[in-house]
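Hi R.,

Here are the chain sequences for the assembly we discussed:
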Amino acid sequence: MPRRTLLGLLLCLWGTGIAAQDLGDIQVHGFVTQGFLFSSHNNYLTMQSSRGDFEWTQGVISLSDPLNDNLRVGMQLHMYEMGQLGEPGVDLDWVSGDYKVNDQFGFRAGKVKIPCGLFNDSQDVDALFLWILLPQGMYPVDNWDFDLALLGGEIYGGLNLGKRGGRVQYRGYLGQSRLESDGGYILQLADAGLTFPSPPAGRDFGGDVRWRTPWDGLTVGVSPQSQALDGTGPQGSLHMAPNLMMAYYAEWKKGKWYLAAEYWRTPLNLVLTMGGTVVPVPLDPRSWYPMVSYRATKKLQVGSYYSHYVNKAAETSLPANYSKDWVVSGRYDFNQYFYGKLEGHFLHGTALGYYTGTNPDGLKPNSNMLAARLGFTF
Amino acid sequence: MSISGNDVDVLIVVNKEVGVSEISSAQLRDIFIGAQSRLSDGSRAVPVILKGGAVHEVFLRKHVGDSPGEFRTRWLKAVFTGQGAMPKEFTSEGAALDYVAATPGAIGYVSRVNGADSVKVLNVSP
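And here is the predicted structure of the full complex:
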């Protein structure tokens, strides 16, 4: 059982003294998390959450080696299991060669993370966040497979604009994204009667420009993205034409306070063809959130956010087309390596995170949830 | 007797081969957050950090604007997204000084420097 294996790893790390391993210039880092979810109604994220479910485990090992001043290679192995999603096996989270010409220009090639909004490329690194679940309208935890990384490459760099101008950083990427057979989109398509022997894939390109303003602690940015997707199975096919999606964001950090907000518009031209019938799927999601957090002590951080998602291409008064989530969260760092989190969700609407297979009797429009997570990182 | 963070002075030290004697506070911050990898003379900058302690805390607060936890989180993000590697880390100032003295482009921080230490102390301009 993967959970037992990971718990064994945790005990080994704890017993031997946890530290990042620096083998000469090769760096080895990693983290392991174990979560729990309980919901008052409905089963969330393919877990049996209405009964309380521990089937929520993640482990990562990262290796990086600077071959010379300009060239670095690295890879990250990833194991993830959440209800029916993910699998006990290990896959490649990212693997890349990174050539940095100078501070203004560099490029990476391989399987690279996709920058979009404030958190997309880091949303699977639990140790970075106060939150157990980030706003699900932008960062759906059940669809990491498609959203997080692509096969291809990216360019990156930054430019100092002087004391009065701040600093601009950019990233631009091009490659192919594909759905994973153990991911949420594939499960939703299977619920709709479509299966794929070879997971749908398509061209993905976009970028991110963020401006660290001269005003202390304020960063603003924008991330355009275009994704396409095609796949064919025995029951029919899926076609998603390329379309421009935009994410706008701002964050402000001052002392013990952190504030952030984002607005995403992600219209999709999705068409399913099943048994000769063409079924257009109307999707024009608009998502936004404001969040605030406060570091009460060196070890304790608390915060709250409101996440709003609505599909404007459908009847917006129906719970199936919106998701509005009030969240309160706390994180306690026991030491540099070991932390615990507790989070409450007051969720209205059923547009995100619910699956027919784990809710065969239908869905209640509202649900409250309690999430907990323990993590080690080194 | 305990030393509070406010009582600690921090000196910015570089390898003696580095051809600058001054660094701006913005440059210093950018080097330690991974946004800049060159000093103003064009030489490669290799940031060196302490694992903890009052000197580490004062340096981060005064020159980076982070708490130790925030600084670590910033670098973990770079590590786990494939965008960077952690700076070289030492548990003692002596070990950090030895590394800075031996490594071209190395830049670090300590509370004191002896005449025998083969490093250069940088002035930090606003």
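Residues 5-125 of chain B form a domain with the D-Maltodextrin-Binding Protein; domain 2 fold (CATH 3.40.190.10). Confidence is low (pLDDT under 50) at residues 1-5 of chain B.

Let me know if anything looks off.

Best,
T.
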